[in-house]
């Protein structure tokens, strides 16, 4: 697999790519065009003059060989196209390095001076919703009551000190000093049908590098999250 990181430039991306393609092995028993024509001419020269071979059989053999040869050329062209397509994908994906994306996860990295944005989708209106924040050691470092929330998506932003929910600043803060940079886990609990349930979260994360898999897939390596397939990205911020 090939990784494109923040220090890669657009000019040398393709030269650094290593798209693994298995070279076709040449088999000694394959019949080439020259050998086929030579064999057919020899067959014609040595046929029984009293019982010559039907011309239609020679034509059928030529047509069959031409079809096989055409398929081989098509396969070669498709392999070239596939390689170019994968290279273009990697080049386009490299532009995501340094950007923020939103992915289904409960843990992400808070950079110094950075902001974590997240969202939850409540299945129904909840009279009591709360966000709990844990540090990398698993210690609870903050609990933010969000009160009653309508069914649907609730969006929040956290800068390490203040929490903003659906565009409104809450009355909670981490104190005089913001949280130190590091990995943080966000747990959202809501009261649903009289019971407290944990709601799945989606959080923003920075793209540190891009990996091009051998099968042509694109993997984004996210800070605090790890490797995520590009198809699992919920939003490009």
TrEMBL record:
Q: Keywords, A to Z?
A: Bacterial flagellum biogenesis, Cell projection, Cilium, Flagellum
Q: Which Pfam families match?
A: FlgD, FlgD_ig, FLgD_tudor
Q: Where is the FlgD Tudor-like domain?
A: 88-234
Domain named FlgD/Vpr Ig-like is located at: 111-191
Q: Which InterPro entries is this protein grouped with?
A: FlgD, FlgD/Vpr_Ig-like, FLgD_Tudor
The family assignment reads: Belongs to the FlgD family.
Function, as annotated, reads: Required for flagellar hook formation. May act as a scaffolding protein.
Q: What protein name does the entry list?
A: Basal-body rod modification protein FlgD
């Amino acid at each position: 697999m090939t990784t494109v990181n923040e220090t890669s430039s657009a000019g040398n991306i393709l030269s650094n790519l290593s798209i693994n393609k298995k070279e076709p092995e040449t088999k000694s028993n394959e019949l080439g065009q020259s050998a086929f024509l030579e064999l057919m001419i020899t067959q014609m020269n040595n046929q029984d003059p009293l019982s010559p071979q039907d011309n239609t059989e020679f034509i059928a053999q030529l047509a069959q060989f031409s079809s096989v040869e055409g398929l081989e050329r098509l396969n070669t062209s498709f392999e070239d196209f596939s390689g170019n397509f994968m290279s273009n994908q990697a080049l386009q994906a490299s532009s995501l390095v340094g950007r923020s994306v939103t992915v289904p996860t409960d843990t992400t990295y808070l950079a110094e001076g950075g902001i974590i944005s997240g969202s939850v989708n409540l299945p129904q209106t909840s009279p009591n919703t709360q966000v709990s924040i844990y540090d990398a050691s698993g210690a609870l470092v903050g609990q933010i009551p969000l009160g009653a929330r309508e069914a649907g998506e609730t969006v929040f932003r956290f800068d390490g000190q203040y929490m903003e929910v659906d565009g409104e600043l809450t009355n909670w803060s981490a104190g005089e000093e913001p949280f130190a940079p590091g990995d943080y886990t966000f747990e959202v609990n809501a009261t649903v049908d009289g019971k407290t349930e944990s709601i799945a979260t989606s959080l923003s994360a920075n793209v540190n590098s891009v990996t091009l898999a051998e099968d042509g897939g694109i993997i984004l390596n996210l800070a605090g999250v790890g490797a995520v397939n590009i198809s699992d990205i919920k939003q490009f911020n």
